[in-house]
Amino acid sequence: MQLTLLALILTLLTVIGFLIGRSRAAASVGGRVAELHSVPSYHGVYVALWAGLPALLLFLAWTASEGWLAMQLVLSALPERLTTGDGQSVALLKADILNLARDISTGREPDPLVAEAARRYAAFRDLADWSLLAVGASLAVAGLAWGRHRIGPDLRARPVVERVVRVVLVLCSLVAILTTVGIVLSLLFEALRFFTVVSPLDFLFGTHWSPQMAMRADQVGSSGSFGAIPLFAGTLLITVIAMAVAVPVGLMAAIYMSEYAGRGVRTWLKPALEILAGIPTVVYGFFAALTMAPFVRSVGEALGLDVSSESALAAGIVMGVMIIPFVSSLSDDVINAVPQSLRDGSYGLGATKSETIRQVVLPAALPGIVAAVMLAVSRAIGETMIVTMASGLTANLTANPLQAVTTVTTQIATLLVGDQEFDSPKTLSAFGLGLVLFLVTLCLNMVALRVVRTYREKYD
Amino acid sequence: MTDLVEQDAAAVTPSPAPSTAPKSRLRSEAFARRLRARHAAERRFRLAGAAAVALAALILVLLLGSIVAKGASAFLEARIRLEVTLDPAEVADRNYTALLRRALYAQFPQVTDRAGKRVLNDLLSSGAPYELEAMVAKNPALAGTTQTIWVRADDQIDQLVKGAYRRDLPESERGLGDAKIAAADALLASGALAQGFNTTLFTAGDSREPEQAGIGGAIAGSLLTLLVTMALSVPTGIAAAVYLEEFAARNRWTDLIEVNINNLAAVPSIIFGLLGLAVFLGFFGMPRSAPLVGGLVMALMTLPVIIIASRVALKAVPPSIREAALGIGASPLQTVLHHVLPLAMPGILTGTIIGMARALGETAPLLMIGMVAFIVDIPHGLTDSATVLPVQIYMWADSPERAFTERTSAAILILLGVLILLNGVAVILRKIFERRW
């Protein structure tokens, strides 16, 4: 509530600051705006920045540290027997305090000390929020006054404002880098914790996957073994099936559209393919599980084959369908980039259109097409919903497309959905799988994007 | 370009050898055979291309057709008409179940035994008493009167009315008892069981009972999530694109950023889910299942898409615009903000809409951050537990009840409708504002 109020006050003060700055700048030269160094609206933005920016920075720093600070204060007041112990019990205690402070039942009668701590925590947060409101608002008012005071004919408002804007732009472009760093660090960090429990060699080359850990020492049958080879094999199998569908169809569709189809046909086909590309993967997953899998199964049974109801074939075919527009639009770009002069030369020698395409255009476009296929493979490997909904959960080491296999992404999704503890090897193994997935797709993407880039330069 | 290709094609299509040519190898039987083979190969190749396109179109039709066939009926729901006497004592006790049952028994005077009554009880949705309660709560004056109301039927009856059960199967294989079918038929015959437009589907939250489950909660969750995504990724993405395209010097550092953005656009979406789980939930301790976290993850995911689209749009603005602005004394920032950016805006907008459509249909990363929970309440704030439409589809797709399949398909239809609408708007915007320099 206080935070919303503060946000409102800040917005209001910024707007007021802009208006004051603008009118005061004009007034300071008696309305002869040409005598100002910067146009009045830059003076307005200048004051608005003084009003909003310091308060905003304070707000960010404060909210980032407030919860942690409050927790430390509350914990330091608790007796040692509660706060010492392994990481888990402290984490549990913190969660209890947080939940009680938010009036969420923890499902059991709280320790009176903990309840008291939660009350103090809530009270502290409340106090801190109110003081943030007071400090933030006064900072904004002070900033506004200071900015207003600086305004005069000689104030170089525009360079200051532009410098601030420039910094904001740079920060925004750094978000992408930060995201990558965040991905790498979080995957590495959690995966390293996993590899302290399970050796990387066992993980990468083991052939038995059963992540269910025993809850008690004497439990039978769930030892937790993390050999990821069956997952890699399953991913590979489904990817190969998907590529067998997507590459020929996508490539031929691209050739047809760029070389044969007339303008009328193309204006209809392109949007249709775009619709196919825009369908959410969960819809493909539903289609795979409820339409394609029973269909594959009944066809297989009619042929006298034993088909699993979660066969790799069904998931692979639907995944291939999903990737068709991806392959075709990338190949379309690549084929269109082949210079017309190459085609003309071929026609001049008397080649037919298909001969030209097969013997001149495709070889010239080959690097780009290979790159497109690599990007498509990376898409297929990383695709989650279709396989989660239509392929199995049991890790089968098989090359038979009629059987159920499981994939890396399916396992990540199922390991992390539902209740989980953060440091069991079962949960952490998902990050190990994620790391492998990230590295593999990253390599594919890097190589493919580089090929596309050099290829484009070659014909530009 | 196209015309040129076609002209060329016409010009080079091998015509029969010119008649003026002397009798030569060109007229030989072997040559004619080769030519026929080459032309046949040409036709085959062309046919293969057309077949590939036709196959893709066929699959699209098949996919949409199967979903429409499964889901269209979900837009209707079966309701039962009851003459409920709102006995004030029972209303005070909030014993609405008894009131409804009494009204239902009144329509079947011949049923007196317990088993028969139990069959009748099962005709009504278990949510029907709440409908009545809501009605009375809205208008307390109703107590003591007799009202004709329509309440939701149970999902099995709903499915029966829609013809999902095969009546020719023996009772044991049908999954629905003969007694219920007879009762439902009696109601149908008297007009007391009828289908109406299904408002529940749009307004209700999730439920274990198919007839009470709706996508209202999921739509609210999707909107909240999308709001966060848009608020974060659009300004950041445009600012980053402006910096990289208009201000940044071409050096190693900007090269690195560029390669990084291109790679980020191709990172599997589930990896962003892992990032969200480890950083936002694990490190910053944000709440699970919250649209805030979902929006953050989606924002990071759509950011590269928006940056790339915005850069393309900025690049398309000709340098003469910039030179003219700089020439009359605008600062570089003024040039960009007053002239380049407005001209690039349609392209940026199109890219943004496509990015948002992608975020709206994304499921996998949200599974990681707990937006897959069973949530009945409709979320109102950014930190309430919520789910989104695609995740709701994923959860319903797992439910065994026949009625959930129907509702899943209906939810898919609604999602696809919104997505096609968004993409259509993007295409129209592109058409209207497209400018050739």
TrEMBL record, chain A:
Keywords: Cell inner membrane, Cell membrane, Membrane, Phosphate transport, Transmembrane, Transmembrane helix, Transport. One of its GO terms (molecular function) is phosphate transmembrane transporter activity. It is found in: Cell inner membrane; Cell membrane. It holds the Pfam family DUF3708. CDD domains: TM_PBP2. Its main location: membrane. The chain crosses the membrane at residues 41-62, 127-147, 167-189, 231-256, 268-292, 312-330, 360-381, 430-452. Belongs to the binding-protein-dependent transport system permease family. CysTW subfamily. This is Phosphate transport system permease protein. The gene is pstC.
From TrEMBL, chain B:
Keywords: Cell membrane, Membrane, Transmembrane, Transmembrane helix, Transport. It is a multi-pass membrane protein. Residues 9-22 have a biased composition (Low complexity). Residues 1-24 are annotated as: Disordered. GO terms for cellular component: plasma membrane. GO terms for molecular function: phosphate transmembrane transporter activity. Residues 219-426 form the ABC transmembrane type-1 domain. It is found in: Cell inner membrane; Cell membrane. This is Phosphate transport system permease protein PstA. It comes from Azospirillum lipoferum. The lineage of its organism: Bacteria, Pseudomonadati, Pseudomonadota, Alphaproteobacteria, Rhodospirillales.
